[in-house]
């Protein structure tokens, strides 16, 4: 038996359980927002917080509220291939989600999300819905993607990864072709993932499943359903940035 | 000797073909069981007496009865330690 602690955080927002209520606290602003019976309730410091802090709290509140509608956020970039099928690129921060999504967007794929995608059961399959954020691609990738230097963009102040926010052609929703569990690696690998590996990875990347509310069990069941879809593991290097589309399209008929 | 195990209400599980994941809503931790562990968990869910589980395992897996007994006791102890089971013993 193996164990792992589930992180209760999304960006700069920490979530804590209080029975059927969830308290969202912004780490840098001492501002709180409560999710109570599906409603967002302003807490201590919320009114005084600036617009960015309030927006970040409200987005996490929305992640929790959407569970009531059967839509669950997964920490993944989402892209739609030329056949209209969604691919979810899931992994920890720094695993290359945005970079690979941008590489695919350059090849004509459309974008559902950079750091999160909503998934919903649809019969035997799964539908992915957009969770809009600009793609954030490291400036250090200019050697692979020379055009990002032409856009006169600047990294966000204080971003240690020097990422540029790029607006790409977006998609609203699409049936899911496959999930890809990605990580940076010394050598390329692309394999089918075992269902248990896939389920554990999805729980890690959708930590709201552990909220002790009425939607925890439906959320877990949705992740189990997602793990039963085609799931692959991808160890990637810079060498695949211009051939990834062919690799993925060759994996699913 | 363990006589009965109960699964707490704040534990949820999801099974796939090669194992099971257990979520503990109270401790905010999750656990993976391989296929043998998942089979033991299924029997606990079905309220199979703990004393019968090793023999049932030997019918499915190529494992000697003493080894099956040790595996069952060790898994139950680990699950109980993590709050995933409550144990009644005599």
Key features of this structure:
heterodimer; A: alpha+beta; 5-stranded antiparallel beta sheet; globular; B: 90 residues; alpha+beta; two-stranded antiparallel ribbon
Helicity of chain A, as a percent range: 10-25%
Oligomer: heterodimer
Low-confidence runs of chain B: none
Largest sheet of chain A, described in full? 9 strands, mixed
Distance between termini of chain B? Answer: 5 Å
* SSE pattern of chain B: EEEEHHHE
Helix count of chain B? 3
Radius of gyration of chain B, whole Å: 13 Å
| Proportion of residues in helical segments of chain B | 40-55%
What's the overall average pLDDT of chain B, rounded?
Answer: 92
Which structural category do the helix and sheet elements of chain B fall into?
alpha+beta
The dominant shape of chain B is globular
Low-confidence segments of chain A, given as residue ranges, are: none
Give the strand tally of chain B. 5
Shape of chain A: globular
Overview of this protein structure:
The complex is a heterodimer of chains A (253) and B (90). By secondary structure, chain A is an alpha+beta fold. Chain A contains 5 helices and 17 strands. Chain A has helices spanning 51-66, 97-106, 195-204, 216-227, 244-251; strands at 2-5, 9-10, 13-18, 21-26, 31-36, 39-42, 72-74, 76-80, 86-90, 110-113, 117-122, 125-129, 135-138, 163-166, 173-184, 189-192, 231-236. In chain A, the strands form 3 sheets. In chain A, strands 7, 8, 9, 10, 11, 12, 15, 16 and 17 form a 9-stranded mixed β-sheet that branches. Chain A has a 5-stranded antiparallel β-sheet with strand order 2-3-4-5-6, covered by helices on one side. A two-stranded antiparallel ribbon of chain A has the order 13-14. In chain A, a hairpin with a 4-residue loop joins strand 4 and strand 5. The two termini of chain A are 35 Å apart. Chain B has 90 residues and is α+β, with helices and mostly antiparallel strands. Chain B has 3 helices and 5 strands, in the order ββββαααβ. Chain B has helices at residues 35-45, 53-60, 65-81; strands spanning 2-6, 11-16, 19-24, 29-33, 86-89. In chain B, the strands form 2 sheets. A 3-stranded antiparallel β-sheet of chain B has the order 2-3-4. Chain B has a two-stranded antiparallel ribbon with strand order 1-5. In chain B, a hairpin with a 2-residue loop joins strand 2 and strand 3 (19-24). In chain B, helix 2 crosses helix 3. Chain B is globular and about 35 Å long. Chains A and B meet through strand 1, helix 3 and helix 4 of A and strand 2, strand 3, strand 4 and helix 3 of B.
């Amino acid at each position: 038996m193996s164990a792992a602690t589930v992180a209760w955080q999304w960006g700069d927002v920490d979530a804590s359980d209080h029975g059927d209520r969830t308290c969202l606290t912004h780490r840098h602003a001492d501002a709180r927002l409560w999710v109570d019976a599906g409603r967002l309730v302003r807490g201590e410091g919320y009114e005084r917080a600036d617009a960015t802090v309030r927006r970040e709290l409200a987005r996490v509140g929305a992640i929790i509220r959407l569970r009531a509608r059967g839509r669950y956020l997964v920490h993944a970039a989402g892209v739609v291939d030329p056949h209209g099928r969604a691919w979810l690129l899931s992994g920890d921060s720094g695993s290359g989600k945005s970079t690979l999504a941008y590489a695919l967007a350059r090849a004509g794929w459309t974008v559902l999300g950079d750091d999160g995608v909503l998934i919903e059961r649809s019969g035997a399959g799964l539908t992915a819905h957009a969770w809009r954020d600009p793609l954030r691609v490291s400036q250090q990738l200019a050697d692979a993607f020379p055009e990002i230097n032409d856009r006169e963009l600047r990294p966000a102040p204080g971003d240690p990864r020097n990422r540029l926010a790029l607006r790409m052609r977006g998609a609203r929703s699409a049936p899911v072709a496959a999930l890809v569990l990605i990580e940076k690696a010394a050598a390329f690998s692309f394999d089918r993932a075992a269902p248990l590996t896939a389920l554990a990875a999805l729980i890690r990347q959708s930590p709201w499943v552990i909220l002790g509310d009425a939607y925890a069990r439906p959320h877990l069941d949705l992740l189990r359903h997602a793990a039963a879809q085609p799931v692959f593991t991808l160890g990637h290097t810079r060498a695949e940035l211009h051939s990834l589309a062919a690799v993925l399209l060759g994996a699913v008929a | 000797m363990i006589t009965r195990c109960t699964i707490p209400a704040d534990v949820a599980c999801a099974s796939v073909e090669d194992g099971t994941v257990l979520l503990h809503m109270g401790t905010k931790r999750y656990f993976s069981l391989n296929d043998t562990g998942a089979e033991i968990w299924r029997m606990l869910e079905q309220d199979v007496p703990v004393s019968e589980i090793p023999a049932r395992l030997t019918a499915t897996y190529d494992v000697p009865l003493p080894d099956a007994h040790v595996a069952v006791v060790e898994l139950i102890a680990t699950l109980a330690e993590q709050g995933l089971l409550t144990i009644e013993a005599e």
